[in-house]
Amino acid sequence: MVQFNIWLLFLCLSIVTLATTLHANLLESEEYWEKHVVEFDEYWKGRARIAEQDNKAAYSSDPYAVSGNLTSSVSELLVGKGERRNLMGRNKGPCMATNPIDRCWRCDPNWANNRQKLADCVQGFGRNTRGGKGGPFYIVTDPSDNDMVTPKPGTLRHAVTRNGPLWIIFAHNMMIYLKQELIMSSNKTIDGRGADVHIANGAGITIQYIKNVIIHGVKIYNIQVHGGGLIRDSEDHYGFRTQSDGDGISIFGASNVWIDHVSMKNCYDGLIDAIMGSTAITISNSHFTDHNEVMLFGASDGYSGDKIMQITVAFNHFGKRLVQRMPRCRFGFIHVVNNDYTHWEMYAIGGSQNPTIISEGNRFIGPNNINAKQITKREYVTESVWKNWQWRSINDEVMNGAYFVQSGPELKNRPFSRMDMIKAKPGTYVGRLTRYAGKLACRIGTPC
Ligand SMILES: *[C@@H]1O[C@H](CO)[C@@H](O)[C@H](O)[C@H]1NC(C)=O
Ligand SMILES: *[C@@H]1O[C@H](CO)[C@@H](O)[C@H](O)[C@H]1NC(C)=O
Fold this sequence. Notes:
This protein is about 20% helix and about 25% strand.
């Protein structure tokens, strides 16, 4: 009997420690949804209705064609037309851009006078994102964030809550500690090139029921849950917000979002979460480290509105001390192309509720743990169900025992014609394609 009690005590203790160390993503709990759905006031409900239309419009009825386009431009770049300049190393040749998104702007020594050119460079599902292109520049001069309702001119919060398109840049290096979530409005670019901009140790960025946002060239880390309160979300409105989730970037019912060359680590909840019917998103050239649940695409098994979710994850480096969810998907169509997965502790790509996952030309280096070699993870489902989910691995390179469990039909209905070469061994190019992932140290007057 004594033995039994000790065993029971041990069991309870281990359940408690497990539960606290492996806390589930906040967004996946029932309480979260009950609380948040009830708390939307008329204003946010109105914005939700408009965003729903915009998100539907941003959805592509032929996702295979879009993903095929990106792959063929990668293969053309790698294989070239007899020229192989882009395969050169860091020190050889003037142009250091190694993938088609970067090639579009990085070799221009005059990039600082051509900043809005960046908006023409996005590929994949977020390809129609223009951010603040065509709008004036807004120069952030003040890193402070003291007034949530009447933000001071010159601060990032003042910039992102203005109406109309704005291309937001930074006067100098700065550390921005957000006191509450930074609620962005539509048609904005946050462009950290030329300055060392850290958004850290405070609340994160919220992209909710809006469209057309570019976030480029900043570092985002140590993001925490913050208490909420009255927060401005546009020039004409502020309102009460509940506690923020502690995501680095939270994309909520939004479309046309491009996140590029961002370095992120160690946030309380997800590094990037995209939920509630968000779509037309590209996450590229970014570097992620030190995090458990990296990316969540779709938070609720009950929310089939995420069927319109279409996301491209390209040329990123999933690096040290990452655990799982790179990404974890529900319902949508996710194209994971030419990323370098060098570390994971549990699994790399997972999901539930029949998401389509096309994994193409990635490099997966398995962890040494013999029980964590599988790249993929299907949750809450038996094989008789998931065997029909389309999860395909095409030309991925697997190393150190990593393996991708495929399911569903092979990919056939899309233009493969220009991709002959990439079929050879594209995963082997990933080191080169992602060499410059993360925030770049761009200096004015020289190529980045
Ligand atoms: C694919 O790329 C071509 C050439 O750049 C473009 O004309 C076409 O619209 C693209 N297709 C899609 C679905 O984006
Ligand atoms: C964003 O920009 C587009 C194109 O210029 C415009 O049609 C739209 O009304 C803008 N949206 C907002 C919310 O300002």
